[in-house]
Design goal:
The complex is a heterodimer of chains A (339) and B (285). Chain A has 339 residues and is an alpha/beta fold. In chain A, 53% of the residues lie in helices and 14% in strands. Chain A is built from 10 helices and 8 strands. Classes of the chains: A alpha/beta (339), B alpha/beta (285). Strand 8 of chain A pairs antiparallel with strand 12 of chain B. Chain B: Component of the eukaryotic translation initiation factor 3 (eIF-3) complex.
Chain lengths: 339, 285
């Protein structure tokens, strides 16, 4: 992505390119992309949809300049090839009109924010193989009813990616890296930029009205259905979490039982050996790998519990912010009524 | 045409009250394509997608640019590209069909008539949208036209482009981010609380304005207007008449509900951090 300075040889530049690129600090999106994402997600809701993001990777800023939606995929073998064809076709057509042809990530819609699933991580890993830096933009169309623009840019943290690649999720490795469930996803701040032409048009066409529809939505008193759904999802997640906890408990209990068995067996062996030494025979080895009680138990992966924990904390955050807004509305009502 | 000496120029005024609504996405797209056009092109041309609403209004929802070559008397349009993009777009959204075409620049030129003919072969009555990116006349003008055929007796003479009313319509979700869409750069997306704050400020400003107006009318500074007065009285009387105690109870109940939810979510979070400490701290003996 960097052009070689004329004084350095190509090899030198390639070598420095391999050095760590500056960390991604902000995602710069164009208004056009936001509008397209909103349109696509609201049209197809409640179905969940995805699309591709195109743009440029410049230093510590990832610019997203265009995007195109993916058709809803049926579960069919031949559609796989069609999907790839569609993508190639779109990219080719867009390149003909001078749109940046660089994939920088993808976007997807979500309902109430339950997007932390394994598929997301797998998609990230797939993308990461081909592009150095990619982001995922999550948009929640249901929040639009409450007058909020729920757009988030996510990426996987590097330490998490390493662990995932090596597929080691047991307790020791996690303790080593000091990785907790907060560190899986990193949220990147979003900046919006518009070309001067577009902002001139918009300012001219749409005069500043004192109040617009989003204000009405925000002052709506009935957020109950939203809260109810949030709580439902939260309790489901807690159920999942407790199941995961039980799995761990089970594992630990088995482990300690196995260790007790091992100790017992070792004692017996030692006693036997003493007897044999007294009788003048060869001592038996103290280890017996063929004995099933020495088989190491596989530790269940903690990935699921981390993801669920992430979801739970997300729901809690949403509930908190919703409750906060409801407080302000209720106090406003009270003040109005008193007057 | 040997009938009479005088042949009348048939001029059909627009019989149907056709009007068009355009989504801001289309304008954004057009501007973006204009900025990215190849150097030798003076204007960009493309297809408009959308649907026709039951009351006859044309709803323009999406657009894509089509590469074209224009010289003084010839226009060449990349038809394959146009069909390819159309099929790709229809895979995502089969309800969007061609409703017309757009071009940047002010007014309608000769080449536009040819292009319009091409598009009228695709659909019955295409709408032609011009987006004036050059800001001639010092203002941004977006106009929509339909073409009407001028015929002299039986012969087709020319096509006349008649302007139809155009409306910029926005979906609610788009309105929310609208302030950020207007500026050239916004440092961050507004959070929920900031949105609340802005909304409350606006509400306060509105109430202040109304107060001032009423005061002015009472003092005689402004001529009273009956319709506004009626509006104000309607608004004030729409506050439901609940006795203060019942109202207080309502508010307190809702407050308590919200507090309960807040408490539950805080407990959950504490539980989470505890569970995590226990999980990772557990050592294998």
């Amino acid at each position: 992505m960097a052009t070689a300075a004329p004084s350095r040889s190509f090899l030198q530049v390639a070598a420095t390119e391999e050095a760590v690129a500056p960390p991604l600090r902000v995602v710069q999106i164009e208004g056009l992309v936001i509008l397209k994402i909103i349109k696509h997600c609201t049209e197809c809701s409640p179905a969940l949809v995805t699309g591709q993001l195109l743009g440029l990777d410049v230093g510590s800023v990832l610019e997203v300049t265009n995007c195109f939606p993916f058709p809803i995929r049926e579960e069919d073998e031949e559609i796989e090839a069609e999907g790839a064809n569609y993508q190639l076709e779109m990219m080719r057509c867009l390149r003909e009109v001078n749109v940046d042809n660089n994939t920088v990530g993808w976007y997807q819609s979500t309902i109430l924010g339950n997007y932390q699933i394994v598929e997301l991580i797998e998609t990230f890993m797939n993308y990461q193989e081909n592009i150095k830096r990619c982001v995922c933009i999550i948009y929640d169309p249901s929040k639009a009813n409450l007058g909020a623009l729920a757009l988030k840019a996510l990426k996987l943290s590097d330490s998490f990616m390493e662990l995932y690649r090596n597929n080691e999720f047991n307790g020791e490795k996690l303790r080593e890296k000091n990785l907790s469930w907060v560190d899986i996803f990193e949220e990147i701040p979003i900046k919006v930029s518009n070309s001067a032409l577009v902002s001139a048009f918009m300012t001219e066409l749409e005069a500043d009205s004192p109040v617009n529809q989003s204000d009405y939505d925000r002052l709506k008193l009935s957020t109950n259905p939203f809260m109810e759904r949030n709580m439902e999802f939260l309790s489901e997640c807690m159920d999942d979490l407790s199941m995961e906890q039980q799995k761990f408990q089970f594992y630990y209990r088995n482990l300690s039982r196995q260790q007790a068995q091992q100790q017992a067996w070792l004692q017996k062996r030692r006693a036997e050996n003493m007897a044999r030494k007294a009788a003048g025979e060869e001592p038996l080895p103290e280890e017996d790998p063929s004995n099933p009680i020495f088989k190491p138990l596989p530790e269940p992966s903690r990935l699921d519990s981390y993801l669920i924990t992430n979801s739970v904390s997300n729901y809690c955050n949403q509930i908190n912010s919703l409750a906060g807004q409801s407080f302000s509305r209720l106090y406003l009502m009270k003040a109005l009524h008193e007057n | 045409m040997a009938l009479t000496d005088q042949t009348v120029l048939q001029f059909f005024p627009l019989s149907t009250s056709l009007s068009a609504k355009v989504h801001p996405l289309v304008i954004f797209n057009i501007c973006d394509c204009f900025v990215r056009r190849p150097d030798q092109a003076e204007r960009v041309i493309g297809t408009l997608l959308g649907s026709v609403l039951p009351d006859g209004t044309v709803d323009i929802r999406n657009s894509y640019v089509v590469p074209h070559n224009e010289s003084s008397d010839q226009v060449a349009l990349d038809i394959d590209y146009h069909h390819n993009m159309l099929s790709s777009h229809q895979k995502v959204n089969p309800k969007e069909v061609i409703v017309g075409w757009f071009s940047t620049g002010f007014g309608v030129t000769g080449g536009s008539a040819l292009i319009h003919e091409f598009y009228s072969r695709e659909i019955a009555n295409p709408v032609h949208l011009t987006v004036d990116t050059g800001f001639t006349n010092g203002e941004a003008s977006i106009k929509a036209f339909v073409s009407v055929n001028l015929s002299l007796g039986d012969q087709q003479l020319a096509a006349q482009f008649q302007e139809i009313p155009l409306d910029l319509r926005m979906v609610e979700a788009e309105r929310i981010g609208f302030d950020i869409l207007k500026t050239t750069a916004a440092d961050k997306l507004p959070t929920d609380m900031e949105g609340m704050e802005a909304t409350m400020e606006r509400l306060l400003a509105l109430i202040d304005d109304t107060y001032k107006y009423v005061d002015d009318v009472v003092e005689g500074r402004v001529a009273p207007d009956n319709t506004i007065g009626r509006f104000i009285s309607d608004t004030v009387s729409s506050i439901p008449k609940i006795s203060p105690s019942a109202f207080d109870k309502l508010v307190n109940d809702s407050l308590q509900d919200q507090l309960l939810l807040l408490y539950l979510s805080s407990i959950t979070r504490t539980q989470l951090s505890l569970a995590e400490k226990l999980n990772t701290a557990a050592q294998i003996l």
